[in-house]
Amino acid sequence: MWFLCVFYHRLLDFRRPEVEALAELLLKTDSNQEGGGSHGSQFLVEWRLPENHHPDSPFHFVSLPSEDIARKIAQRSLLVKGIYELWGEGSCYEELERAIKEFPDERKLQYLAAGSTFRITVDSFGKVLSSQDQNERMARLVYIPFKGRVNLRKPDHKFWLMETDDYGSNNGLPPVVQKRIFFGREVGAADRKLLPTYELKSRTYLGPTAMDAEMAFLMANQALARPGKLVYDPFVGTGSILIAAAHFGAMTMGADIDIRVVRDGRGPDCNVWSNFKQYDLPAPLSILRADNNLPPWRSGLKEVFDAIICDPPYGVRAGGRKSGGRKLLKGAVAPYTVPEDKRRDHIPSTAPYSLAECIHDLLDLAARMLVRGGRLVFFYPVAREEGPTMIQFPEHPCLTTIATSEQILSLRYSRYLLTMIKTAHYTEELEELAREKHWEFKENHAKWLEDGGLHSAVFNPLGLMENLKVERDSKPKYRGKYV
Amino acid sequence: MRLLTHNMLSSNIKGVTNGFPLQLEVEKMVVKEVAFNGDFLKNIFPKIEWKALLDAAVAMGCGDLPENAEATMLDNEEFLRKFHHALLQLHLEEGALICPETGRRFPVSKGIPNMLLHEDEV
């Protein structure tokens, strides 16, 4: 079944993957079978664009298995403004009228029947229509035989008349070549009310890199978080990502190397646990202090997490740390031995954790600890002067990347949300390779740290601007922090 | 720290080959309610080392679990409830996890196990 899917003009790259993830989630839940055997649903979400529309347009056509699935997708999504049963479209109102009249009665009349209530909303993209303009447009719809009563507050059926046009300057919005008008019946719409509830400014305990609530929900959707599933965040911090997963009913677990954050917070009523309590969410099953570089999992433990979601420390706003001690790793001093009498309360020093090693460890963790069909969802930073064609995303033989969504953070760098599915078993050979790689990172610690020069790419004031000129024009003007 | 976590952790000190299961040193134990979810328990059951869970539950003062468990028992509601209680509701608030091979003490404070290694243990 084809539907008209209208998105909010936000986070453009994240929109289709969200719908696709939710379709998979709902189909899996509805069919109510298979623990983690096969991955991917048999049903494939298909997309089409309206005539002459650019992929960044808010208007898309999507093929979904049923109206029920479409409604549930819309209701759980953050970026779907609405999914509609399209009754007609056209490049002018005459064409729209012909299309609506041709739309079969058996699909129309039940929603127009006497005794039902309805509402029509007139909306436009790229321009605000005055209420007079809106009323004029509505008055033209007299050819639709509405028998029900109007109810603006709680109608049984909601109809939408939406138009988009090249309004001259177009306000920096995606190019619209031709006027297009759509009329349809709303099947479902996003509930963005949960965003003010969860917004960071009202959260008690925050860190410098707490994940924005909207993004955390998008990540939880990519991870297919739902009741009965176990979601793990190896860089849990203040828990901002797990909160979104817990909201969708998943069990959560987190680890962090910074014990002050996970154990103490800012006091008894301002810590990771209190953040969950604030929203009446079940607390994480477990929070532990552990190093992602040397994870404390027992050998033989495999395939326990249904999803791993995280925002790894990439050294721009917060740098990663790993155990081992800075001096020791640089080879500056002989191996340090903690005296026997000091062992009990010894606080080990930590060393900087290069991005390359951090990502390597993360993929290895996912390959080992995810169930088959489980998902790894994480942010990967990219210096923008590299140019879109040069980006080499991390890869792993056990993992298949299914979505890469860019969020531009500044002129200099952006981050990509990567969604990977575990598609192959973690073999002993892979485990051995990972062990060798671990030692390579350890022995060439200094070299790897220098390689990940993202911090200087972002903050270095001089010398980079010339290269950036090309890059600055390669993304359309309307692409910025929120789109 | 729940016993689910305990069941997943081992001592990963350099050179240690047998770091599992960690022994529990219980100073303070609390019961924290967790919503019951049968599907979750069925999914996690095959990953659990039963003997380690059994011993840990006893160390936490809960002797309800059967000596042995197998997948067929998951259809039994009473067994599921006991499993749920031991795995998810028993919570070590203060205490330690002891490496069975070296005796190294990993402290658990405010419910958070500190698994970080010293410089000479990595």
Shape of chain B: globular
N→C terminal distance of chain B = 24 Å
* E-strand count of chain A: 17
Number of domain modules of chain A: 2
In the CATH hierarchy, what is the superfamily of the largest domain in chain A? Vaccinia Virus protein VP39
Which consecutive residue ranges of chain B, at least 5 long each, have pLDDT under 50? none
Which structural class should the secondary elements of chain B be placed in? alpha+beta
Q: Strand-residue fraction of chain B?
A: 15-25%
The major β-sheet of chain A equals: 8 strands, mixed
What's the number of extended β-strand segments of chain B? 4
Strand order of the largest sheet of chain B: 1-2-3-4
CATH A-level architecture of the domain at 1-10 and 21-95 in chain B: Single Sheet
> Given the helix and strand composition of chain A, which structural class is it?
alpha/beta
CATH class identity of the largest domain in chain A: Alpha Beta
CATH topology (fold) name of the domain at 1-10 and 21-95 in chain B? N-terminal domain of TfIIb
- Count of DSSP-assigned helices of chain B: 4
Q: Whole-number average pLDDT of chain B?
A: 94
**Proportion of β residues of chain A?**
15-25%
Q: Can you identify the CATH class of the domain at 1-10 and 21-95 in chain B? A: Mainly Beta
Main beta sheet of chain B: strand number and arrangement?
Answer: 4 strands, antiparallel
Pfam families (chain B): Trm112p
GO cellular component, one term (chain B): cytoplasm
GO biological process, one term (chain B): positive regulation of rRNA processing
InterPro entries (chain B): Trm112 (IPR039127), Trm112-like (IPR005651)
